[in-house]
Amino acid sequence: MSGMKRNLVLVLAVAAAVATPAAFATNGYFQHGYGVKAQGMGGAGVAFPQDSMAAATNPAGMAMVGAHMDFGLMYFSPDRETTLVSPGSAAGKYSANETAYFMIPEFGWNTMLDKKMSVGLTVFGNGGMNTSYNRNIPMFSSITQDRAGVDLMQLFIAPNVAYKLTNSHSVGASLILAYQRFRADGLDNFNNVNQSSGVGSVTNNGYDSSTGVGVRLGWTGQLTPEVTLGATYQPKIDMTKFDKYKGLFAEKGDFDIPSNYAIGIAVKVMPKMTVALDYEEIKYSDSKAVSNPLGPVSAFGVLQNTLGTSNGAGFGWQDITVYKLGLAYQHSTSTTLRFGWNHSDQPIPASQTFFNILAPGVVTDHLTLGGTWKLGKEAEVSAMYTRAISEELKGSGSIPTAFQGFTKEANLKMQQNSFSLGFGWGF
User: Fold this and answer.
1) For a designed S-S bond to 393, which of 243, 347, 361, 362 qualifies (C-beta 3.0 to 4.6 A apart)?
2) Please, which pLDDT band fits residue 145 given cuts at 50, 70 and 90?
3) What is the mean pLDDT of the chain?
């Protein structure tokens, strides 16, 4: 078997193992960064490719990476909590941490066909709408043992190609094969003809899945030996519908992956130090299931924007801007240290905390550190720690009048810790 065929067999085997991402929340439900090295720099990587995970951020960087294979595993521990504000019969704190941690793998492979063109495969995931409450939430279900919670997972398998236009400029493209699965529990009070257009397809139906195909395009260019720029764009990915939840999500179970774009700059401020800055826009308004607001509610607690319809009540998420600032310092020939900060807008308005009890992705700031240590000429190990700073979003007019016998407001709180370990090989 040729070296290329052996590499492809290994790539497919590892991709199959990686195809089980867990759900989590960072920049809304997008990761704060992809690849252990970029994650250690606050996620910055549009103009600073460091390994074969670069295509998840900007596929043009793969032509600069060279022949490389990378595997990473993240231990992710989010702390989710809802406080239902007194007065009201349901007032009190509710923990959403029945599932306390997740293990999240990722994989990248890249090879050079010649001095100008690379081909690769990058496998990664998103998530974020994950909650598993320790007790029943009365507004959502009248069944005492019916615990509310949702779980969204997204997997992306991205074969990619990049081409060096010159020694300093490259372009790239990824074909994105997207898979997602979802389940919802404990929403029995909305599983009726007054609340939903699809009774029986609202809650407690186990996992359902959907698929879609998209692209990501990118460019990177070194303007001077010290300054590199980059840009990347991913259009909205149209996904097949969650049929088991066509009575929950707007547009009869549609849950598209929003468009996003980013620009970045990397500056070598000293011979051993590079500072990278990314600016990213995530358009959650592309998905009505995510962005539709709760809308008006009658005096009897009936949603006027009936679940499952085109204008059906949703989570009310807003488009967000994300800033990623990272620093890489080559401490020695075998050691590189990294630091970063990631800041995003708040995707959830204070008026929309009611449904977001199920999806409290409210954190907006992450502090990161990491490093890489060479084990020999070709092998290396990398590590990363991220602290998502505790954030509380206090509801303001979030509970419709008809539900205020249960609580006056819903306040959401979240913080996160994550650790990643990665291994890389040049070949």
Assistant:
1) 362
2) confident
3) 92
Half-sphere exposure of 6 (CA within 13 A, CB side): 4
**Per-residue model confidence (pLDDT) at position 1:** 45
Average pLDDT (8-17) is 51
Q: Read off the tokens for 160.
A: 């990619």
270: left (phi over 0), alpha (psi -120 to 50) or beta: beta
Residue type, 105: P
Instruction: Return the CATH architecture of domain 3-426.
Output: Beta Barrel (2.40)
pLDDT digits (tens, 9 = 90+) for 212-247: 999 999 999 999 999 999 999 999 999 999 999 999
Q: Whole-structure pTM over 0.85, yes or no?
A: yes
Q: Which residues contact 167 (CB under 8 A, 6 or more apart)?
A: none
Do the bridges between strand 227-234 and strand 260-270 make them parallel or antiparallel, or are there none, so unpaired? antiparallel
DSSP 8-state class, residue 126: E
Query: By the 8 A CB rule, do 363 and 80 touch?
Result: no
- The kind and range of the H/E element at 347 are none
Q: Which residue has the tokens 């067999």?
A: 9
Confidence at residue 130, expressed as pLDDT on a 0 to 100 scale: 81
Distance, CA of 176 to CA of 31 (rounded, Å): 16
Domains of the chain: which residue ranges? 3-426
The tokens of 38 are what?
Answer: 């970029």
| Per-position DSSP letters for 150-171, written without gaps between them | EEEEEEEEEEEEEEESSSSEEE
Rounded Cα–Cα distance for residues 102 and 95 (Å): 17
Higher pLDDT, 344 or 20: 344
Contact in structure between 387 and 419 (CB atoms under 8 Å): no
**Torsion region of 397: left, alpha or beta (phi above 0 gives left; psi -120 to 50 gives alpha):** left
The DSSP symbol for 243 reads G
What stretches of 242-378 adopt beta strand conformation (E)? 260-270, 273-282, 320-330, 335-344, 365-374
Average pLDDT of the segment spanning 383-406: 96
Dist CA 350 CA 104 (whole Å): 30
pLDDT at 104 over 90: no
